[in-house]
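S1.2 Input.
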Amino acid sequence: MILNWISAMINWLKESTAVWIAKMKQTAVRIVLTISILALMLWVSVFFYGSFYYVYMPQISHIKPVHLQFRCSDDKLSSFPEANLSLLNQYREQLLNYGQPYIVVLQLDMPESPANQNHGMFMVNLEIFDKKDEVVRTSQRSVLLRYKSSLLQIMETLVYAPMFLSGAREQKQTLMVEFFSRYEEDAYKPASKARITVESKNIQIYSSTLKIYAYFTGLRYLMFNWPILSAIGGVGSNMLFLLSIVLLSWWRYNGYEDETSVTVHVQSKHGKSLDERRRSLQAVLNKERTEVRSVPSTQSLSKLDPSQSAIEEVGINGQDDDIEFIVGAEDDGNNIVEVGHGEMELRHRGDRTDTTSCEEAS
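S1.3 Output.
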């Protein structure tokens, strides 16, 4: 008795351990598969967002050094300083994007010399040409050094004297001349070069630089000023889109399997085995099918012999090879059988009910 009990316990432990190990393996496989799918979706989402950012966002700024040239006569300027700039990249392609507004600014570094302070205002001219050397846009701006009194100049010189002596600071002013605040490239006459002219022969300039900044609005403004938030939103949107595709595919695959399966529900108060209930149910169905197929046309069969089975309603649609029917029958006042669309159900009246599902074997 004890040995049998111990043997049963050992067998139970073996079976439980085997079942537990199988479940753990299945769970581990599902976890690894889920993590792999999520990692792949994340990588694809980041790749899509990076590709979109590279294509959608233009270059933020373009900086071109301006080398002013002029002619001299008797140690004096005989012409206005001017410079020609190329607005093409190294591959001879358009530097500016179509439909994108730009801010065009000229930076002038000018010494605070007596000649510049006494010069007063002067004009700076910008001309933009297309590939046929035709003028596309022009702009003229006036420039003037900021005024500083003699006392302020002396105080500034004393305060910043160490920096002036070390070369960390210079006595100069940096002027920003804005030519265009919303310049947009013409698709029919794209810009190929620009000409800058300083309309003064007595002006002194350290250096000058042409700076072109992209003026962002809408989505580009958000992506440029809040890059982290935009990246999270873009990657999250891609992840949501890919996840919806995966879930719809999974639902479609499992839904198709459920549609192709046939289920038989059996409810009984008797303690019969599954095979016995299947055989008894199949016998009842075969008997009812024989009676249904003996009818010559699609009619109500409620007048069949009640001694065999009390049939409440029978309907036949289609040919012999494709029959759709519903049968209600009573067996000894305890059983009710209903059949329809390839699904059959047996119910027994009573307090105790059992439910079993199996495939129809017709």
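S1.4 Remarks. Helices lie at 2-56, 114-119, 150-159, 161-166, 219-225, 227-260, 274-293.
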